[in-house]
Amino acid sequence: MARFSLVQAGVLAITGLAALQGCSLPTTGPRGEAIEQAATSYVEASTTKPLPYCLVSVTPRVTDIVAKHRERLAGRFIDRLGPASVQIGSGDLISVTLFESAAGGLFFPIEGGLRNGNYLTLPNQIVDDKGDITIPYAGPIRARGRTAQEIQQAIVDALKNRALEPQAVVTVVERRNAMISVLGEVRGATRFPASVSGERVLDAIARAGGLSSAGQDTWVMVERNRKVAVAPFEALVYEPENNIYVQAQDVVFLYREPQTFLAFGATGKQGQVPFEAWRLSLAEALAKAGGLLDDHAEPRWVFLYRAERQQVVQQLGPHCAVTDGPYVPVIYEIDLRDPSSMFLATQFPMSNKDVIYVSNSRSVEQTKFMDYINLINGTVQGPINTAIAWYALRAAAKGTATSAVLIGGTPAP
Question: Model's pTM, two decimal places?
Answer without folding.
Answer: 0.70
